[in-house]
C-alpha cells in the first residue's frame, strides 16, 4: 500500500512537471498547433548573423521562423523559412536579413522588391540573386548595426579630431585677430566701395565727355566735309578770288581803323596831360581851402560865416517868397 | 604541513575513486531490477517529491530577486523587456539547476550518507549481504536512479516557478506589462536552454547520490562517523555541483558558441 502510494505520487509529480516544462517551452517558443506552416526558401551571398529560430517578419508582423540555413553550390547560402499558414505575401517578394536589435538578434524581412531601401550594395546582391531557381526568393543582407555604428564611430572620431584642432587653433588670440581682420576687411570693403563709386562716376563723366567729344568730332567732321565740299565747289566757281579780295579790303579797313585809333590815342595823351594839370590845380586849390586860405577856405573853415550865409539864404528865401506874394510891396510902377 | 596537504589530497582522490568504483558497480547492478525496483518509488518520493517545496521556494525568491536586479541594472538605453530575457536565461540555464542542486546536495546528500552510514555502522549492510542481497543493487541503485530522474523534475518545477515569479515581480513591482515581459523572455528563448538545465541537473543528481552513497557506505565508528560521512557528502556534493556546472558550460556552451 505504501509502495503504491509512493508510485502514484512520484508518477504524478513527474508527469505534472514534465507537462509543465513542455507547455512552458512551447509557449515561449510561440509554437502553434494545428497549423501547417508553409516552407519558403531564399538564397543569399551572405546571411550575416541570422540563426535558426530567428523571426521572419512581413510588414512588421512576425509571420514565421528561420528553419534551416545551408550552404549551396556557387557560393550561395539557402535559408529555409517556415511561414505561418495563410500569410499573405507581398508582390514580387524579396528577403532582407538584418539585425533586429543591438544585442545580436537578427531577423528576415519579406518585403516587395519596390519597397527595398535604396542601397547600392543591396541592389547588387538582389541583382545577383535574380536568377534564383524556381520557388526561391531573392535575398540580400542589410548593413549590420555594428558596421553602421563602426562607421558612425569613425565619423564621430574624425569630427572630434577636427573640433579639437579647431579648438586648439581658434584660441582667444586667434579670435581677437579674426575679429580685427573682419573689422579691417569691413573698412577696406567700405573704402573699396567708395572708390568704386567715385571711379564709376568719373567713368560716367568721362564717358559723357567722350560722347560729347565724339559728337563734336562728328560735327567737325561734317563741317569739314561741308567745307571741303565748298572748297571743292569754290575752286571750281571763282569764289576763292572773291574771298581774297574781300580779305584785302578788310585788311585795308583795319589799317585805317588802326590809324584812327593811334590819332585818338595821341589826343587822349594830350587830354590826359591837361587833366593832370587841372587835377594839380584843383589839388592846390583844395589844399588852400583846407588851410582856410581865400574866401572859399574861410567859408569852409569858419562856421560862423557858414551860419551867417545860411541865415542870409533863409532871409533871402523868405524875401523872395514875400516878393512873390506881394510884388507891389517892392515894385512901384507908375506910368504917369 | 606538507604531510597534511598530501593526506587531504590523497583522501579526496580516494573518495572520488571510491565514488567512481561505486558508480561502476551500480551500473552493473542496474540489471538486477527485482532488487532495486521495489525501492525506487520510495527513493524517488524521498529525494524528489519531498524536495519540491525547497526547490520551489528557492526558485520563487530567485525569480523575484532576478527581476528586480535586472530592472536595477538595465537603466538608460537598455529596453526594459530585457528583464524577461535575463530572468528566462538565468533561471533556466543557471540558477534553477545550481541553487536547487546545492539545496538538494544538503538535503539529499546528507540524508543518503546518514541513512547508509547508520546501516553500515550497525552492520545492516553486512546483514543484507548475508541474506544474499546485493547491497549496491538494493541500496545504491534506486537512490542513484531516483536522483538522476527526480533532480531534473525538481529543477524543472523550479524553472517554471522561477520564471513565473519573475513575471509576477515584473508586473507587480516594476510596472511592466505581460507582453513586455514575454517579449523579452521569448526574444532569446531556445529549447536548448531547457535541455541544458535539465541535463545539468540530472548530472547533479547523479553526483549527489553517488557521493552520498559512497560516504555512507564507508562510514566508520559510531554516530560520529555517520555525522562525519554526512558532512563529507554534503561538502563533496556541493563542490562537485560547481565543478560539473563549469564542466557543462565549457563542454556544451563553449562548443555551441563555436
Feature tags:
heterodimer; A: 336 residues; alpha/beta; 7-stranded mixed β-barrel; 7 helices; elongated; B: 258 residues; mainly alpha; 9 helices; 86% helix; 0% strand
Describe the structure.
The complex is a heterodimer of chains A (336) and B (258). Chain A has 336 residues and is α/β, with parallel strands linked by helices. Among the domains of chain A are: 1-31; 34-146, no CATH class; 294-327. Chain A is 63% helix and 15% strand. Chain A has helices at residues 2-28, 120-128, 145-169, 172-237, 239-291, 294-301, 303-325, and strands spanning 38-44, 55-58, 61-72, 76-83, 93-99, 106-112, 136-141. A seven-stranded mixed β-barrel of chain A has the order 1-4-3-2-6-5-7. In chain A, helix 5 packs across helix 6. Chain A is elongated, with a radius of gyration of 66 Å. The termini of chain A are far apart. By secondary structure, chain B is mainly alpha-helical. Chain B has one domain (2-257). Chain B has nine helices and no strands. Chain B has helices at residues 2-29, 33-47, 52-73, 82-121, 124-130, 135-173, 178-187, 191-217, 223-257. In chain B, helix 1 packs across helix 8, helix 3 runs parallel beside helix 6 (135-173) and helix 4 runs parallel beside helix 8 (191-217). The mean pLDDT of chain B is 88. The chains are: A alpha/beta (336), B mainly alpha (258).
